[in-house]
Amino acid sequence: MREIRNMGELRLERQKVKYKIRYLEDELKDQSNLTVHTFKKYVRNMAFETGMKIVLGLFLQKRKNRKQKEKEQVLDSS
């Protein structure tokens, strides 16, 4: 930091520091919002994929059970 010679320079330095703090706070807030948004998108995608796997698993299991019952009926009727 440079040497301050009078009160006017001191006021200007304080103002400069305040603006820099505000700017950095805004940058931090923007980055935090971006991080939260990215995380929410990731969680949403994971939930969708998990739900699809469950639904497909149940559907395929039901189809498999139906085919087994049909085979059993064919064997029983023979």
In a nutshell, what does this entry contain?
By secondary structure, this protein is mostly helical. 91% of the residues lie in helices and 0% in strands.
What's the structural blueprint in terms of helices and strands?
Layout: H1 7-77
What does this structure look like?
With 78 residues, the protein is an all-alpha fold. It is built from 1 helix and no strands. The longest helix is centred in the middle third of the chain and has 71 residues. The radius of gyration is 33 Å and the shape is rod-shaped.
Observed structural traits:
single chain; 78 residues; 1 helix; mainly alpha
Which residues sit in consecutive blocks of at least 5 with pLDDT less than 50? Answer: none
The number of strands is 0
Report the sheet with the most strands, covering strand number, pairing sense and barrel closure: none
Strand content: under 5%
Q: What average pLDDT do the residues reach?
A: 89
Distance between the terminal alpha carbons, to the nearest Å? 97 Å
- List the helices and strands in order: H
Multimeric state? single chain
**Which class of secondary structure composition applies to the elements?**
mainly alpha
Number of helices: 1
What is the CA-atom radius of gyration, in angstroms? 33 Å
Helix content class: over 70%
Bulk shape = rod-shaped
